[in-house]
Design a protein that fits this description.
The chain is of the alpha+beta class. It contains 8 helices and 10 strands. It has a 5-stranded antiparallel sheet with strand order 1-2-6-7-10, covered by helices on one side. A 3-stranded antiparallel sheet has the order 3-5-4. The chain has a two-stranded antiparallel sheet with strand order 8-9. The longest helix is centred in the N-terminal third of the chain and has 19 residues. It starts with a helix and ends in a 10-residue tail after the last strand.
Length: 263
Amino acid sequence: MKRYLCVCMVMLFLLSGCGSQENAGESPEAPANTGESQEEKEVQEAQRELFAMDTYMTLAAYGENAQEAVDRAAEEIERLDQLLSTGNSDSEVFQVNKNGKGTLSQDTASLVERSLEFNQATDGLFNIAIYPVMKAWGFADGNFRVPSEETLSELLKLTDVQQIDYDKETAQISFAVEGMAIDLGGIAKGFTSNRIMDIFRECDVESGLVNLGGNVQARGTKTDGSLWRVSIIDPLNTAEMIGVLSIKDRAVVTSGGYERYFE
């Protein structure tokens, strides 16, 4: 089982264009500033902690524009959270779920398109239409409960992705069955992490690390040239690690049932 979990939990990928903290990256080390040269003086460190997308996040950047990069990244996280949240009545996704249809913005449309592609690629295992079932178990509002078999049987009829009508040309989406709803949480953090890397590049940050609650992504290496080290927690014993990955310009994404559950 542990070998299986180890293989399944660790995925390295960079998506093009496109709670709780499950995967802890090594704490970034601040570069020494001795004042010996102008180059050393220009290496700034900026870090930020925030709670968004129902998870705890940390941002760290090093470089002349590090603070600008971290501030812009935090703003982008909050913007996307407001756009994609299933619980915020002002969000685009909430309104689509409420009305059963809508015209999507560029970011939301991109995520829906990729999600539908992943649904086909995984033979239906990646399913953004699962939200009604998640709500029935209480994972949407924290009011945990065990739904009856009859309830689940009815709700599963609402999870057929083929009943989602989406037009790429107009970015219009609608549900063929009343009561259907989508949740982009399974792809939103990866999308957000890539967007942060774009911001770091725009700000000329060559060294940075972000941890979006199990989505860790590195920009370059540490300031001393060494690789970032990301630890993978043992899901059967969270006080231990099952491995450490040394990375640069890579994402490490984990998911484990030991973080979100109820008895």
